[in-house]
Specification:
The protein is mainly beta and 337 residues long. The protein has one domain: Porin, CATH 2.40.160.10. Helices cover 8% and strands 55% of the residues. It contains 2 helices and 18 strands. It has a 16-stranded antiparallel barrel. A hairpin with a 3-residue loop joins β13 and β14.
Length: 337
């Protein structure tokens, strides 16, 4: 009996600091087996990571309704491309002895939260993306609507900005209406032609939820050395009807002097017990020659449990000379912890 008591006391001495600090360790492991058919190229099987991540988050009660909050979230790549290279550029590695498997480009911040809302400092998704992100039923799959080479989908229609050096505020809900705004200093250390203010770049969003209805409006004003001046605004509307959910998104974006784009997205889902049928269509028109594109996707999610899921996805994109026409059949397995 004494041995058991001593062992329990030793174990408690190790776990107590983590409990007191209120740290939650969480993550997602998302892998897919894909058959990729690229016009003008060879058909091939691929193993792709679909947004695996590892995170730490927590809070501390400061009294009087105020608390400190934090998050440190990382991309974790279990699959990084073929045996001769990486999906994100970089040196050769891929399947063989690849050591570049963790990157820090997810949300990471510290902040304060209370009755006034939440204030964050660090890296965070632009509020303009928060406004439309609900209307992305194929998130973290071969048919993801967000651009980014880590998704394995280089023809996705909408840019996703996650910005370093951000001061962000998210309001409490006022009868279903929530506002978010983020400001970013230009810091001429990194952009020699940039400004010197606290809000040289900014993004804002209004999000309204009322029963089956959701409406989101987002705006982004960003200037980078690589892309020049970017101005984007988007409007999203979604409606749920029993097992059905439909959504529409419109985005108007200006990038530099001669690249204006308009994007339309329509989505729909139907839930049957542990299964979800999904479909989407999108079309992107650009002023830049050779940059128009469109695509569609259908899929089925099967939820074995609240944490484990299998996915079937078929995605097709029809693009012009600047992008290859692509068809992907993807079988995915996901687990959240």
């Amino acid at each position: 009996m004494n041995k058991k008591i001593i062992a329990a006391a030793i174990a408690a001495s190790f776990v107590a600091p983590a409990v007191m600090a209120d740290v939650t360790v969480y993550g997602k492991v998302r892998q897919s087996v894909d058959m990729v058919d690229v016009t003008g190229g060879d058909d091939e099987w691929q193993i792709n990571d679909r947004g695996s991540r590892l995170g730490f988050k927590g809070s501390e009660d400061l009294g009087n309704g105020l608390k400190a909050i934090y998050k440190m979230e990382f991309n974790v790549f279990a699959s990084r491309g073929g045996s001769t290279g990486k999906t994100n550029g970089g040196a050769a590695g891929g399947h063989v002895n690849d050591t570049d498997t963790i990157t820090a480009n997810r949300n990471q911040y510290v902040g304060l939260a209370g009755d006034f809302g939440t204030v964050l400092i660090g890296r965070h998704d632009a509020p303009s993306n928060m406004a439309w992100s609900k209307n992305n039923p194929f998130n973290d799959t071969a048919a993801d609507l967000k651009t980014g080479s880590w998704t394995g989908n280089n023809t996705a229609p909408i840019d996703w900005e996650r910005i370093d050096g951000t001061i962000a505020y998210v309001s409490p809900s006022f009868s279903g209406l929530t506002a978010a705004v983020a400001i970013v200093p230009d810091e001429t250390t990194y952009n020699a032609t940039g400004g010197d203010g606290l809000a040289d770049h900014w993004s804002g969003a209004l999000m309204y939820s009322n029963g089956p209805l959701y409406v989101g409006l987002g705006y982004l004003d960003l200037d980078t050395p690589a892309l020049g001046d970017q101005n984007e605004w988007n409007l999203t509307a979604m409606y749920s009807m029993d097992a059905f959910k439909v959504g529409v998104t419109y985005e108007d974006a200006e990038e530099g002097n001669n690249n204006d784009t308009e994007t339309w997205i329509a989505t729909g889902t139907y839930t049957m017990g542990n299964n979800v049928l999904k479909a989407q269509w999108w079309d992107k028109d650009s002023d830049t020659a050779g940059d128009d594109r469109d695509g569609w996707a259908v899929g089925l999610d099967h939820n074995f449990s609240k944490r484990t899921q299998a996915q079937l996805t078929y995605a097709s994109s029809d693009t012009n000379a600047n992008y290859k026409d692509t068809d992907v059949f993807s079988i995915g397995l996901n687990h959240n912890f």
